[in-house]
Sequence to fold (408 residues):
Amino acid sequence: VKRLLERARRHPWVALGVTVAALAIGGLAVAASGILPLKASAGHWQVTSWLLHFTMRRSVSTHALMIDAPSLDDPALVAKGAAHYDLGCRPCHGTPRGDRPAVALAMLPEPPLLQSRIASWSAAELFYIVKHGVKFTGMPAWPAARRDDEVWSVVAFLRRLPELTDRDYLALARGQQETTLQFNSDEDVPGIVRDSCARCHGFDGAGRGLGAFPKIGGQRLGYLTRALHAYAEGRRHSGVMESVVAGIPAETLNRAAAFYAARRAGAAATAASGTDQARGRAIASMGIPARDIPACVECHGPSELPKLPAYPSLAGQHAQYLRLQLELFQQRSRGGSDFVHLMHAFVDRLTANDIRDVAAFFATLEPQSWKPVAADEPGADGFAVPRPDIGNHVDARIQGGGGGLSSR
Ligand code: HEC
Ligand code: HEC
Ligand code: HEC
Fold:
């Protein structure tokens, strides 16, 4: 020791090393002794609190430099973010008026009221916080790491939050109809539908008429149950739906699926401008043989032949939702049920124009123009999946239009 001290006097670097080592050993000894209080009730010293927030702000700013914000004005995007906020964020951050549950107020650090904070962050910084959460605080990361599009929907909503009254907020987050809509039927509405599903999908399953929420009313039962179980087991990726189904028993989800399968969801859309209906119809009914893309109707209908209940009907679905799902398939970010490989087999060969046109076309079909298969019919479950013939079975109902499709 004596020789070490002697050396330290001559070489300042050695002195520094010895001091650091001594402090580290001392610090470890204090931690090991267990005398440090980590109780949340004590709060942070002001200097600790300042240091933590300074570090967090610098970290977020630096990491957000590389992030480019997309356009965030789409009302459907804002509504999707609002609906998620109500379920996933409000329990900690409260409503615009500033009501926060007691549990949230007892957290350390306390989840801040966001209204007054939003202006101090850029869209990219908010994206970074909502996607990754904040370490050592209760602020969680986004549940589905591959769904940046959903994180942006929450950012789109957060940027509106400061100007919202509680009334605007409820309309946006739970749908205009919430207070007035009575379900006028003798039928029992499952509690889960009333408390959860209806605020986004509506009681009729039409998705509140917004492209943000898929139509699920009248969808095939086999598909609905498989989709819900895929979300619950993390095989289909959506931070919104994964938060909804987390901890809900399978039996309850099945009841919600059965309720929606028996509804009739809204009307078909009119043809959207800027899309080529004839091309969309041709892809749907014949595929694109030159690129080995199968006819969509083979699996999805509409068709005179009953379709397997694990294949979703696309007729009357929101075009915006169909486009998003096809893009997610291409990025391998959607996930899905055990049958999702059927889409992955060819989806990469669809161009952006193909996707735009075929999605717009399916949106204009009557929602229930497909033939449902009763649950007890053969083939309703445990079936083999045939490879569809490409182009030799064009359904009578959507025949006509769009021969000679080139590989545009
Ligand atoms: C379990 C409670 C909890 C949930 C749920 C939660 N947060 Fe947080 N959030 C926090 C806490 C605690 C902080 C404070 C972190 C800090 O002090 O640095 C925070 C911080 C934030 C901040 C930074 C605010 C600022 O200026 O420092 C934003 C933005 C935010 N949360 C948004 C959200 C959104 C959007 C959601 C829903 C997707 C959400 N939070 C869900 C607890 C929560
Ligand atoms: C907070 C809003 C919200 C709530 C509440 C909600 N959903 Fe969803 N749901 C969505 C969104 C958004 C999607 C699209 C997710 C995606 O991109 O995969 C979706 C997708 C679905 C799908 C897949 C549809 C398809 O065509 O693949 C089903 C099935 C579904 N929801 C059923 C339900 C049921 C049943 C409930 C109630 C237990 C429910 N949802 C509650 C927003 C919600
Ligand atoms: C071989 C059968 C098959 C063919 C052909 C097929 N699909 Fe699919 N598609 C499926 C299956 C199965 C699913 C459901 C995957 C899951 O359960 O997650 C699906 C899902 C989809 C979805 C998502 C629906 C939703 O509600 O989330 C879209 C959009 C879609 N397909 C579009 C198309 C288009 C466009 C074509 C034609 C170019 C096509 N599909 C051809 C089997 C097929």
Summary: Residues 369-408 have pLDDT under 50 and may be disordered.
